[in-house]
Amino acid sequence: DICINNRYRISHRTGKGGCGVVYSATDLQSNEEVAVKLMNAYKTSVHSSVFQDEREINNTLKGGIGIPRVRWSGYQCEFAVFIMDALGPSLNDLFLFCGRKFSLKTILLIADQALSRIRFLHSKGYVHRDIKPSNFLMGTGKHGNLLYLIDFGIGKNFSEAELCKDVEDHRQPGTSLYATTNHHNRREQSWRDDLEALGYTLVYLASGSLPWVSLPSDNTREEREQLTKEMKERLSGEELCDGVLPKEFATYINYVQGLTFGDKPDYAYLQRLFRNCFKAQGFKYDHVYDWTKKLFDEMQAGMDNEGAEMHNDGAGMENEGQPIDNQGRSGDGVKVDLRHEGYLAHKMGLIITEHPYQTGSPSHLTLSASLSNLYSNQTSQ
To answer: Does the record's keyword annotation contain Transferase (predicted)?
Structure first.
C-alpha cells in the first residue's frame, strides 16, 4: 500500500483541485479516516509556493471553528502533503444531491455559518480569494451540522494585498463564475471580494444558476469573460435576487459591492440581516438542512418498505419498519444520525469510490514512483 510518513495509508481519491489531488486514507496508529492533499511541489515553483502559503495560513487559523485540523504537513519524496481530518460532502455535492436548488431555510443556515468562517479568516489578516460552493464542506458525526471553509492555497495576507491594490495582475486567481469585478479587472482582492463572492454563491445555490452562466457558447473565452464582468457591474442586488431570494440578500449584495478596497465590512450587520430574515420567516434553528430532510425521507421510506415486505412474508420483528419521528429517532427510540458522512456519501455516490491503488516495496524509490504514478494518473483524469 502507498503510505505517507509511514503512517497514513492511501485508499481512494475524493477530489481534485487546481494544485493537487485529495485522497481518503487511514491513520494506521488510530485507525481513523483522514484526508490527504497531495501536490507535486517540484513540478512548478508555483505549487511549492502554494504549499508554503497554505501551510502558513493553516498554522495561523489553527483551532478556529469550522477550520479543518491539519494533523501533519511536510514533504514526501517530491510531493508536498497535508494530512487533515476527514470531512463530509461539499456544498456543491449536496446541491447536486438536492436537485440543484436549496430552500430559503438552508440558504440562511449556510449564509450565517459562511459569514462566520469568512469573518474569522479576515480577523487573522487573510483574504481567501476563491469563495465558492466546493470550498465549503460539512463536518461529520457530532460535527455534522458544522460548515467548514477549506482550500487556503491561493489565500493572501491583506497587508501584502494592500501593497498591490493598484497593480494589474493578469494571473489573478479564483473561479470566474463567483469572482468579483476586481478579479475580472485583474485587480487585487480584499475583504469585500470574499463577501461579494459569497453573495453570488448564495444566489447560485438558491436558484441553480447565475445570469452569466447562460452566455452564448459560441463566444470566445475572452468574450465571455468580458460579458460576465459587464453583467456583474450592471446588475444590482435587487436584479440578481428578484424572484429568488428576499430583499435582505439584495441589501447584502449592494452593501458589499459598495465597499472600497480598504473598507472593513460590518460583519455583525450582515449577519443580522440574515438572522432577522430567518426569524421573520418563522424558521427554527434545528439544523435540519435540505439534505438532512431528503435522507430522512429516504430512510423512512426504506424502513416502511422493509416493514411491509416483512409483514407480507409473515415475518415481523417487533420494532422493524417503524417510522422515524421528527427528532430522528426510530420507533424504538434509537437515535439515527442522519449527518453521518458514510451514509450520506454512499447515498450520493459522490465521496466513496472503489478504486484502491496497490503498490510494491515501501522503499523510498518505490514510494516516490508510486506517488508519481498515482498523482499523474489522477491529475490527467
So the answer is: yes
pLDDT digits (tens, 9 = 90+) for 279-298: 999 999 998 999 999 998 98
What 3 state SS string does the chain have?
Answer: CCEECCCEEEEEEEEECCCCEEEEEEECCCCCEEEEEEEECCCCHHHHHHHHHHHHHHHHHCCCCCCCCEEEEEEECCEEEEEEECCCCEHHHHHHHCCCCCCHHHHHHHHHHHHHHHHHHHHCCEECCCCCHHHEEECCHHHCCCEEECCCCCCEEHHHHHHCCCCCCCCCCCCCCCCCHHHHCCCCCCHHHHHHHHHHHHHHHHHCCCHHHHCCCCCCHHHHHHHHHHHHHHCCHHHHHCCCCCHHHHHHHHHHHCCCCCCCCCHHHHHHHHHHHHHHCCCCCCCCCHHHHHHHHHHHHHHHHHHHHHHHCCCCCCCCCCCCCCCCECCCCCECCCCCHHHHHHHHCCCCCCCCCCCCCCCHHHHHHHHHHHHHHHHCC
Interhelix angle 191-207/104-123, rounded to 10 degrees, is: 160
Catalytic status, residue 130 = yes
The percentage of residues in the chain with a pLDDT greater than 70, rounded to a whole number, is 75
The pLDDT assigned to 166 comes to: 55
List, in order of start, the domains of the chain with CATH numbers.
3-87+352-379 (3.30.200.20), 91-280 (1.10.510.10), 290-348 (no CATH)
CA atoms in the 13 A half-sphere facing the CB of 352? 10
Check residue 333 and give its pLDDT: 33
Residue 143: name the closest of 121, 113, 107 by CA: 113
Contact between 215 and 232 under an 8 Å Cβ cutoff? The reply is no
Name the CA radius of gyration of the chain, rounded: 23
pLDDT digits (tens, 9 = 90+) for 42-54: 655 566 788 999 9
Catalytic residue among 27, 53, 130, 337: 130
Question: How many CA within 13 A on the CB side of residue 136?
Answer: 26
CB 176 within 8 A of CB 165: no
